[in-house]
Amino acid sequence: MSGRAGRRGLDKKGSTILMFDEKMEKDVAKAMLKGHSDNLLSSFYINYHMLLNSQRLEDIDLEYILARSLLQFQQDAQLPALKAQLAEKQKLVSVSFNQEDDLETLHLLKEKLVEYKH
């Protein structure tokens, strides 16, 4: 297990030191080192106790802490995709079907058909 290697937004690369306590097959080690990492989802949330403690301490700015949190970073990263989804849904909502004219024509034709039958 290793922590973050580098500073977010500052370093493009970082270094990690791995120490193995048991022998590992070459393929297993390669898959572990070169494979994809698991998704890391933030579980940060501001709770009641955090709010109370922030009122007690003058130097704590909860807005600053929240803005710099992994949770906010992840939510900001999702924003472009969400905006694209919203734009797509707004396009669907704005589609208009001018069926009123067609319905009126259909109604007139139906009335004429009824007249011809009588």
UniProtKB/TrEMBL annotation:
Q: Which GO terms describe its cellular component?
A: nucleus
| A Pfam family of this chain | MTR4-like_stalk
Boundaries of every Exosome RNA helicase MTR4-like stalk domain copy: 63-117
What keywords is this UniProt entry annotated with? ATP-binding, Helicase, Hydrolase, Nucleotide-binding
* Superkingdom, taxonomy of origin: Eukaryota
Tell me which Gene3D superfamilies the record gives: P-loop containing nucleotide triphosphate hydrolases
**Molecular function per GO:** ATP binding; helicase activity; hydrolase activity
Keyword Hydrolase on this protein?
Answer: yes
User: What is a biological process (GO) this protein takes part in?
Assistant: maturation of 5.8S rRNA
Q: What is this protein called?
A: ATP-dependent RNA helicase mtr4
Record the organism. Answer: Noccaea caerulescens (Alpine penny-cress)
The beginning of the lineage is: Eukaryota, Viridiplantae, Streptophyta, Embryophyta, Tracheophyta
